Amino acid sequence: MKKLLTLLTLVLTAGSLAAQDRAADSLRYSYGRQSVSSSRRTGTPYADTLETGNPGVKVVLYNNGTYRFVKDPSVLANDEVFTEYWDTRSVNPYRIEPENLPDRFTLWIVDSLDAYCCPHQTHPRSLFGYRHGRRHQGIDLPYPTGTPVYATFDGKVRISDYVGGYGNLVVIRHANGLETFYGHLSRRDVESGQWVSAGDVIGLGGSTGRSTGPHLHFETRYRGAAFDPAWLIDFETGTLRHRLLRIRSWYFNPNQRYVQSVDDEDEIFRTDEEDRLAAEEQARRDAAARAAAEAAAMRYHTVKSGDTLSGIARRYHTTVRELCRLNNIRETSILRIGQRLRVR
After folding, report:
1. Listing from the earlier edge strand, what are the strands of the sheet with 50-51?
2. C-alpha span between 335 and 320 (Å, rounded)
3. Mean pLDDT of 286-313
4. Cα atoms in the 13 Å half-sphere on the side-chain side of 313
5. Burial code of 98-129, b = ≥16 C-beta within 10 A, e = fewer?
6. Residue 233, helix vs strand vs coil
7. What is the bridge-based pairing of β-strands 178-185 and 233-234?
């Protein structure tokens, strides 16, 4: 009896934990699907910040009387994401082929303690993909020379240098492993290794490098692989599409641009369990479709006086062996008048 009660307790506990996990997943994904408006803090916060008891989180007081909970950069900067494959010159220090990345994975872009600032709210001029036969791995945003350029998310500057066709380039790595690129700047106002917050000025717009006029070349990359920034940001409205982004491997294909679709959005935010159930349901639908197609293609012959297997095979352009296989009979079987034989 004691063993039975123990087992029952474990089952109930497991069921309760599973329910809690499902509830947590539901909240996680519903929160992750929220869009985020662009914001930029103006003014300088007070020098003194307040401790929260969590070494990774502080309260910052701003000179307009507002405050905000923020992650402590001195703690974040020690994370291995800011040391692994860290190179202050190479555009892609990872050297990882996109096909070697997971087929599907999720990235928290901003949580409740993170901020977001749109690099520039405008109609993009040149989109992600091939352009004049060459890969264009970002989006070009019209940007007058001398206009301040803002960091999109909190992070650590990996590159601040003049780099080939990019001209003056700033690359910021963020705590989720994402990197944002800001190219063709007329001036760089940050240094490699410097921590920046979303909305901080990192330079001025310009037309340096391989550029046909003043604009901001903006890229988003994960472990060196570029994907269309429009999956993250609606540049027309300046909003971050979702707090949580589920990335699929085909995003890294240079021919794949963002396409808005309700079905796609639902698929992006499915949980792993929902993915499994969806795959099973799709397999059932595929099997039913194959069965229906096979049934539609079936043909039958009703045996008449004088019919033989060889004669029926010639009539329907098949073989005696195939007729026997389809009807589970032998070549020596005697046919009966009125018998239905499957011939296809």
Report:
1. 50-51, 57-61, 67-71
2. 13
3. 87
4. 14
5. beebeebebebbbeeebbbbbbbeeebeeebe
6. strand
7. unpaired
In angstroms, the CA 225 to CA 251 distance is 9
CA atoms within 13 A on the CB side of 113: 13
Sign of CA dihedral 64, 65, 70, 74: positive
Q: Please give the model's pTM, rounded to 2 decimal places.
A: 0.68
- What lies within 8 Å, CB to CB, of 272 at 6+ separation is none
Instruction: Extract the tokens encoding 176.
Output: 């989720």
| Residue-level pLDDT at 8 | 41
The share of the chain scoring above pLDDT 90, in percent, equals 38
Tell me the C-alpha distance between 62 and 42, whole Å.
9
Q: In the chain, which ranges are continuous DSSP H helix? A: 2-32, 73-76, 262-268, 272-297, 309-315, 320-327
Question: Which pair of structure tokens corresponds to residue 265?
Answer: 């959005």
Contact by Cβ (8 Å): 121, 78: no
String of DSSP letters for 159-191: EEEEEGGGEEEEEEE-TTSEEEEEEEESEE---
Residue that has been written with the tokens 């792993």 in this structure = 272
**pLDDT computed for residue 15 by the predictor:** 44
Per-residue burial over 151-163, b = 16 or more CB atoms within 10 Å of its CB, e = otherwise: bbbbbbbbbbeeb
d(CA 209, CA 109): 30
Query: For tokens 């340096």, what's the residue?
Result: 208
Burial of 324 (0-12, 13-18, 19+ CB in 10 A): middle
The two three-digit tokens of residue 41, written as one number: 């803090």
DSSP helix/strand/coil, 242: coil
pLDDT of residue 276: 73
Q: Exposed (0-12), middle (13-18) or buried (19+): which is 212, by Cβ within 10 Å? A: exposed
69 neighbors 59 (Cβ within 8 angstroms) = yes
Encoding tokens for residue 89? 């010159």
